[in-house]
Specification:
Layout lengths: L1 H9 L1 H23 L3 E3 L1 H10 L3 E4 L3 H6 L6 E2 L2 H7 L12 E4 L6 H10 L5 E4 L2 H7 L8
Parallel strand pairs: 1-5, 2-3, 2-4, 4-5
Length: 142
């Protein structure tokens, strides 16, 4: 412990950076836990679609969607969202909606917008289509 204190006092900037990183990790973890939008696994997505009439909302570009996508997924690219909002999803307002993007990074903004628009059961596929493909789950081109 004595060596740690000596190191911290001799390397103030480095110690401050480490403390800042630890605080940021704690804050982000708390934010994720308290968020109404949860990240779900591929198994949970399958369960929601099969048992609770969940909707996979694929927000990738139409060309990527047409190449391959989750069976029964709805494509709503960012361009369409900007123009029309979520009008095409109104009939699914009470169903679980799982937002899917390429890697699970872009989906959070759309999920937050969906939640603000009154969709109460919004989730994000953790890892996006990469996780779906990595798990060896079926895709369709229709």
């Amino acid at each position: 412990m004595e060596q740690f204190i000596t190191f911290a006092s001799n390397n103030g900037l480095l110690s401050a950076v480490w403390v800042a990183i630890v605080v940021m990790i704690i804050v982000i973890t708390i934010k994720i836990q308290l968020s109404p939008i949860k990240q779900i696994s591929t198994q949970e997505l399958t369960f929601l679609m099969n048992r609770e009439q969940g909707v996979a909302l694929d927000i990738r570009k139409e060309k990527e969607f047409n190449t391959s996508h989750i069976l029964d997924a709805i494509n709503l690219s960012n361009d369409k969202i900007t123009k029309n909002g979520f009008v095409s999803l109104e009939k699914h307002k009470e169903n679980p909606i799982i937002v899917v993007c390429s890697a699970g990074l872009v989906a959070s903004k759309v999920a937050i917008d969906l939640h603000k628009a009154g969709f109460s059961r919004v989730s994000i596929l953790k890892g996006g289509m990469g996780a779906w493909i990595g798990a060896g789950l079926p895709l369709t081109k229709k």
